[in-house]
């Protein structure tokens, strides 16, 4: 009975968010205000924390987790690469889908820099651009040259990222450890498109940094 209740609650929440997120096949300028996006972020974050706790282990819920590592070498000092790369606003426009970042909260605690944000994307569906929102929290560790990001998007896709920076002298190696969680029916699509998106962003950042744009 408890499991049925959880599944019903999850289904209801997903339906509500689908209606609020995909009601308008429009453009990256969402109809919601930043305050409304912040409220959506909080709802997604609360659901994410509940879901991660209540549904483990993943196979019980028909979900699957897949991890991938991708790396790139950038010809620039680690301090500069880390500063540019860890600023998610610099990622806008480097991937064809990503159009805007909305920051909800930005603070530092015990040496870790926290940022709560929503990424606004335009995803072509049957030739029509549909606005999608990914709610995320980033945790930047300046002393360790690394950061983490946890994100949630429809239809209940979770992505965990740990990005580490290695000093190779005049070159910096950036390695992204990516873990995707999704329905077993969507996991292959999620991993393929997620890895491709991150690789495209990596290449864009490399070109921008090495050319002096950043």
List the helices and strands and how they pair.
Elements: H1 2-22, H2 34-54, E1 63-74, H3 78-85, E2 98-109, E3 112-125, E4 128-141, E5 146-153, E6 157-167, E7 172-183, H4 187-211
Order of helices and strands: HHEHEEEEEEH
Number of helices: 4
The helix fraction, in percent, is 25-40%
Strand order of the largest sheet: 1-7-6-5-4-3-2
Assess the beta-strand content as a share of residues.
Answer: 35-45%
Which ranges are low-confidence, i.e. pLDDT below 50, for 5 or more consecutive residues?
1-27
How many E strands? 7
Distance separating the two termini: 55 Å
Mean pLDDT: 82
Gross geometry? globular
What structural class results from the helix and strand content?
A: alpha+beta
Q: Any idea what the radius of gyration is?
A: 18 Å
InterPro entries: START-like_dom_sf
Keywords: Signal
Organism: Planotetraspora thailandica
Signal peptide: 1-23
Walk me through this protein's architecture.
With 214 residues, this protein is α+β, with helices and mostly antiparallel strands. Residues 1-27 have low confidence and may be disordered. A hairpin with a 3-residue loop joins strand 5 and strand 6. Helix 1 (2-22) packs antiparallel against helix 2 (34-54). It contains 4 helices and 7 strands; from the N terminus they run ααβαββββββα. It has helices spanning 2-22, 34-54, 78-85, 187-211, and strands at residues 63-74, 98-109, 112-125, 128-141, 146-153, 157-167, 172-183. A 7-stranded antiparallel sheet has the order 1-7-6-5-4-3-2, with helices on both faces.
């Amino acid at each position: 009975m408890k499991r049925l209740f959880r599944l019903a609650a999850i289904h209801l929440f997903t339906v509500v968010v689908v209606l609020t997120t995909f009601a308008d096949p429009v453009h990256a300028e969402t109809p919601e205000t930043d305050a409304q996006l912040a409220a959506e972020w909080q709802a997604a974050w609360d659901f994410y924390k509940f879901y991660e706790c209540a549904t483990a282990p993943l196979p019980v819920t028909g979900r699957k987790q897949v991890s991938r590592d991708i790396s790139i070498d950038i010809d620039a000092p680690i301090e500069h690469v880390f500063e540019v790369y860890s600023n998610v606003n610099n990622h806008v426009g480097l991937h064809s889908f990503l159009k805007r970042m909305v920051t909800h909260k930005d603070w530092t605690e015990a040496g870790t820099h926290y940022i709560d944000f929503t990424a606004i994307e335009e995803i072509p569906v049957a030739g029509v651009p549909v606005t999608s929102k990914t709610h995320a929290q980033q945790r930047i560790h300046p002393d360790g040259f690394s950061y983490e990001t946890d994100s949630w998007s429809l239809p209940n896709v979770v992505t965990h990222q740990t990005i580490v920076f290695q000093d190779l002298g005049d070159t910096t190696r950036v390695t992204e450890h990516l873990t995707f969680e999704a329905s077993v029916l969507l996991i292959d699509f999620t991993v393929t498109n997620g890895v491709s998106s991150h690789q495209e962003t990596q290449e864009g950042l490399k070109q921008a940094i090495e050319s002096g744009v950043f």
